[in-house]
Amino acid sequence: MRRVAVIGVGHSKFGDRRDVNLKELAFESVKQALNDAGVTNRDIPYVSVGTVGVWYEEPFPAAAIAEYCGLSGAGLVRVEAACASGSAAVYNAYSAIASGLADTALVIGVEKMRQVDSLTVVELLGRAGSYLWEFENFGLTFPAYYALYATAYMEKYGATEEDLALVAVKNHKYGAVNPLAHLQKEISLEDALSSYVVAWPLKLYDCSPITDGSAAVVLASEEKVRELRIETPVWIAGLGYSSERSTLSYRDGFIGIDASVKASRMAYKMAGITPDAIDVASVHDCFTIAELMAYEDLGFCKRGEGIKMIREGQTEIGGKIPVNVDGGLKSKGHPIGATGVSMIVEQTKQLREEAQPSIRQAPLKNYVALTHNVGGTGHYCYVTVLRR
Amino acid sequence: MAGFPSLRSKKLVLEYNIPISKTLKFWEGLKEGKVFATRCKMCGRLYFPPVADCGECYSSDIEWVELRGEGRVISFTHVDVRPPSFRGAPPYTVAIAELDDGVKALAWLVGAEKKDVRIGMRVRLVPRISDDGFPLYVLTPHAADNS
Question: Do residue B39 and residue B97 come from a single domain?
């Protein structure tokens, strides 16, 4: 297998982006990523687009986006792995290069979730579990799926609603200073705890918002990195993937995401690292409970100690391992197909020591970063280890 | 969509017909007051919700097993923000129960005050005909064990 590097990154403003259509939104990130890599649309032989769709009008979004960005003619695919679609698209493009089939590839993650009203999004995401057994008769919503994990986790480890709220407070603190974030505001513990219940024990501020956004990365082989004289390539050192049963009642337990455990161990093994080596991470905090479980599933701490990490500030800048210092899905926003690519953009910038503003820059010791992207409630999981 | 100029697309209404030929006994059973699971006759694995094919050993030789349906709650949530399809329903509680039969079941938990719902409470999985006349199943407190 050939080594693969991230050589260019682009990221749109996340938020309510009804000022642009799907293609225009993708273009914003693609233009930045190509410029950043020092290549043009004509240099891209393969394009992988991570997007879920249904909330926007285009049924074949990859072709529409490629046309708009002058990429028609390249190898082209739309990749779907629910909220992990972006990472799955990165994996797809990585494979094309690692295998030797392509020297360069462009990954686009994009979602436009606000072209339908928010209750329609609640409906569409609710249907995105095991439809017949969870939605048809019982009307589960996406917050409700994660609430079932939250209730079980709280019972098992004595976690409180306040512990969950601490995750939101932390991520909003960083999102408030990230110019690309959807919700650029700090929140207090009281704000979080007094927000209305969505699916008990999860309240409004335990949930990521409904967001539009795009992100793009250019990947290249080692040969191409040399040819283009890329100054600061960020290498994909490890990749891991896994999945879990669709229907919740077939699963073994509800205090962690098995697919995250498996995907992370696979990525660590490939990169030849242990979790101690990670300087900074983006983990999948679609809901506050998801971030606490991620600390444990990824091996940042032992089972049940996620609450200790958040209470002690171990995942803030200056702590043991800074997590989601771009605001995370919680505050930066979660345009679901864009999220995995956005994580790669953020961690590439962290490793290049280019996080903006600089108060968001994590200190680097090993120059190793991690992204953890979950689709559904662990229906899909991708973990990527980046190294400068 | 105030604030941003936009065009309104053509309207699309989708309803899917979900085939149930191979699991018809389950839906018929509910109408007769029974909750069935399936058991793979090859490897013995018990499935609830029921399946026509065993994804473990790949046998399609299955038998129908009526569940006793008694068990205990292992997690739950109270759903306040409801999707449009359930707009007419009052807020509902969804629970996952571990049944003594050896499977788990996810369903609405009905007949209990919100404040009384807790992990560990004994429940029973029972068939129910919905207000619209469709067969389904719910969890209810199992009074004898919760007193």
Answer: no
Q: Map residue A152 onto helix, strand or coil.
A: helix
**Is a pLDDT exceeding 70 seen at residue B2?**
no
User: Do the Cβ atoms of A133 and B136 come within 8 Å?
Assistant: no
What's the CATH number where B120 sits? 2.40.50
Structural domain that includes position B43: 19-66
Q: Is the ipTM of this complex over 0.85?
A: yes
Structure tokens at A176: 């408030």
A207 tagged catalytic: no
Q: Which residues of chain A neighbour B84 with C-beta distances below 8 Å?
A: 119-120, 122-123
| B94: contact with A, CB 8 A cutoff | yes
Residue B48 half-sphere exposure toward CB, CA atoms < 13 A:
25
What is d(CA B114, CA B120) in angstroms, rounded to the nearest whole number?
A: 15
Q: How many domains does chain B have?
A: 2
| Shortest alpha-carbon distance between residue A114 and chain B (Å) | 9
Distance of CA A146 to the CA centre of its chain: 17
Instruction: Give the range of the structural domain holding residue A41, as residue numbers without chain letter.
Output: 4-116+210-227
Residue A292 pLDDT greater than 50, yes or no? yes
Cβ distance of B104 and A249 shorter than 8 Å: yes
Q: Is the pLDDT of residue A340 over 90?
A: yes
Which is catalytic among the residues A172, A284, A334, A372? Answer: A334
The share of chain A scoring above pLDDT 70, in percent, equals 100
E-assigned strand segments in B5-144: 36-40, 46-47, 62-66, 70-79, 92-99, 104-108, 122-129, 135-141
For residues B62 and B81, membership in a common domain is answered with no
Instruction: Say if B9 falls within a structural domain.
Output: no
- What pLDDT score was predicted for residue B89? 87
**Which residue of chain A comes nearest to B109, CA vs CA?**
A138
| Tokens standing for residue A307 | 């609450």
Give the strand pairing for A280-282 and A368-375. Answer: parallel
What is the pLDDT averaged over residues B16-42? 97
Q: Minimal Cα–Cα distance from A231 to chain B, Å? A: 41
Question: What's the pTM value of the predicted model, to 2 decimals?
Answer: 0.97
**CATH at A105:** 3.40.47.10
